[in-house]
Design a protein that fits this description.
The structure is a single chain. The protein has 223 residues and is of the alpha/beta class. It contains nine helices and nine strands. Strands 2-3-1-6-9 form a five-stranded parallel sheet, sandwiched between helices. A two-stranded antiparallel ribbon has the order 4-5. The chain has a two-stranded antiparallel ribbon with strand order 7-8. One of its GO terms (molecular function) is AMP kinase activity. InterPro entries: Adenyl_kin_sub, Adenylat/UMP-CMP_kin, Adenylat_kinase_CS, Adenylate_kinase_lid-dom, P-loop_NTPase. Keywords: Kinase, Nucleotide-binding, Transferase.
Amino acid sequence: MFMQGPPGSGKGTQSPIIKDEYCLCHLATGDMLRAAVSAKTPLGIKAKEAMDKGELVSDDLVVGIIDEAMKKPSCQKGFILDGFPRTVVQAQKLFYVFFFPALQLDEMLEKQGVKVDKVLNFAIDDAILEERITGRWIHPSSGRTYHTKFAPPKVPGVDDVTGEPLIQRKDDTAAVLKSRLEAFHKQTEPVIDYYSKKSIVANLHAEKPPKEVTADVQKVLSS
């Protein structure tokens, strides 16, 4: 199973709930990449070389890191792919400049005796995302998060526990969000179209409150 949706759609809120309730392995590609670099695995060393040069980590390396992670005992009951594939290029092998039906990700999973059996699409209107994301503030040392509308601190701009000032992440501005959403609609939405043809996509109304989204996810996964 993998989770799909634009930034701020609630994937990060729902993934730990799904992971715990269904005893699944949560494979967040960003976290796995950092862990591989830190552990200095062969793939991690190659990834670090690319990163040090300011280059993007290749799809082959990311697939390799996912492949390694899925062999762990904790992933034998199933897994959630979080952050991959973000593009159709990552879902399919690329020969020259054309897409062909041989699937890089699917081939790897087939060798492991598993497959993507469900895609959770966290669908939400861009205008709602802007309200959600631009209102987010965090306490940098603890990671506590607040929202000016949905979960405001007791004192504006101040952490409830320490009294220290809150900050807004650079990614949580309207300008950055616009750029990220443009990239999502152009690059990532076609992945949903690709998996829709396999009849494994479940569209969730991500604008609902988190508990209602959780209930919808449970219905999908129990059907």
